[in-house]
Amino acid sequence: MQHTEQLSPWWRHAVILTMAVGFTILIWLAVRSFTDAPPIPKQVVTAAGEPVFTQADVLAGQQVFLKHALMENGTIWGHGAYLGPDFSAEYLHTLTGDARAWFATHRYQRPWSALSVVEQDTVKAEVVQMLHQNRYDAKSGTLTFTDAERLSYQEQIGKWAAYLSQPAANAGLPAKYITDTTELRQLTAFFAWTAWASTAHRPEKNYSYTNNFPYDPAAGNNVSSDAILWSALSLVSLLGGIAVVLFAFGKFDFLGWKSRSERVLPPVSVGHATASQRATLKYFVIVALLFLLQALVGAATAHYRVEPGGFYGFDLSRWLPSHILRTWHLQLAIFWIATAYVAGGLFLAASLGTEPKGQVKGINVLLGALVIVVLGSLGGEFLGINQMLGQAWFWLGHQGWEYLDLGRAWQVLLAGGLVLWLFLLFRALAAVRKDPEKGEVSSLFLYAAVGIPLFYLPAMFFDSTTHFTVVDTWRFWIIHLWVEGFFELFVTVM
Predict the structure, then answer these.
(1) pTM of this prediction?
(2) 3-state secondary structure 368-390
(3) How many CA atoms lie within 13 A of 256 on its CB side?
(4) In principle, which of 42, 106, 109, 348 could form an S-S bond with 141, CB 3.0–4.6 Å?
């Protein structure tokens, strides 16, 4: 008698259980990012009430940061590229040095370098206390800067203007990249706010809004006990979860770990491709080309670490600066990986299911849409970085968020293409979902596929003026949940 092997329904149960637990935590964290994000003061003033900068300046500075794609050069709170500096950490460290010089002059009437060890220790303590003191008034929305903080902010406008003007010093950004004085002032205000949130203690807490990140002992930013505790608990939870999974696989047969037959279902007939399977071959050619292009762009990006001011004697930054190359490097990686999974899903759906009428046409239309999104977004990012799209930079150019660089219009088209892909999968698998042998695996296949377009939606939950903390929460969903979570779930089912 022929033996029939069926997929255990515990695969579906395990996925549902994992998602229920995981999304409970993720949703709670997302809510906390809205309620507990560092406040952006309505106005920043001196003790005498003189204005320094406003909330509008901070948000405008964030937009300057984004539309010039500086997240593909350096980082904010550790998130972004590592060609350039962490702008929040660099601003904070410079502020610390400026504050030491100010206190040395006003307390001892001598420069910092001329102070004795005891005097320097006294000044260090005063600077740390100043940085940790939270002078933000939540009722009025006013943050008070000390004279040392005000002077440092004014001087650092010139510091960042100099950084953004020299390709050899900024890892390959265009020469004289940002020269507008208003934009430089707003950008520095944005950096100043990130540095303030990094050191000012949360109300009734002994650590900052960013849990003392970035680490800088000179500014009194040391690792908090909470960071150590939750890091340890995270590691214990990870190892414990892996142990539970391995125990379930090894001890029980709920998931079909112990095979009872030599053949693996669903069978793929070697040498007998369907018309829709042959249509997917073009996808794999594109995958290979995108992968090759990504490798070449990545090599050029890496060269900026060795020779930021040139490329074997050629000024590459004049035509292809480092932040556009790094943008393309990341986007091409996402594109070739997503294209491979899309093509693999369409190919296997034909083996598992049926060949509906018009399926080949749908596959070709999807391929055309994919080409439009890839070429349109890469070209838009180049134009956006070069400030050639005006106010349309967010929609058609470079959004500025690492991994989510493509303009919002291209994101919408990408999501639409993924919905079309899901529709094509459903057409191929609909007829076999009630089959006793293939029903469970075909249903799980569709459930995993649904997660790909559905959980790309958080990429559209923000705009250029949304709070940085909130955006980074949704970026986490895309980078670690969409790319590394649901794509891996889908490839496991494949």
Answers:
(1) 0.93
(2) HHHHHHHHHHHHHHHHHHCCCCH
(3) 16
(4) 42
